[in-house]
Amino acid sequence: MHLLVVDDEAQILELLDLTLTMSGFLVTTARSGPDALALAQSRAFDVIVLDILMTPWDGFETVRQLHAALGPALPPVVFLSGLNRAAQVPDLGDALIAAYLVKPFRPSQLVEVIGQVARAARNRPSD
């Protein structure tokens, strides 16, 4: 499974890359929403793992931009946040399959959630 992992903090991005690669995923990283958009327009990903608190675009704006560019091809998204509560996930209708994971989390939790959203995307009825 090919993941796009997006976080503007280099150390966290490196840790996620290492953890997910060791869990058997093919990982591509991006340091910002605009970088993630450019990558997602150039290749396909199975799941996007995305920090919420980033600049210049936060995770929700990044998903809005990805949805505008990719439409129904938008892969499922796992939002990561240090906020103790689930923030308002953008309403993109049926186009967005998403999960929300609060930091800190165990690597096994992240792997499990990635599997859940990937299965949900595979089981989504096609138009």
From TrEMBL:
Query: In this record, what's one Pfam family?
Result: Response_reg
One of the entry's Gene Ontology molecular-function terms is: kinase activity
Gene3D superfamilies the UniProt entry points to? 3.40.50.2300
Q: Which UniProt keywords apply?
A: Kinase, Phosphoprotein, Transferase
Task: Tell me where in this chain the PTM 4-aspartylphosphate is found.
Answer: 51
Q: Which part of the chain is the Response regulatory domain?
A: 2-118
Instruction: Give GO terms for biological process.
Output: phosphorelay signal transduction system
Query: What name has this protein been given in UniProt?
Result: Histidine kinase
Higher taxonomy = Bacteria, Thermotogati, Deinococcota, Deinococci, Deinococcales
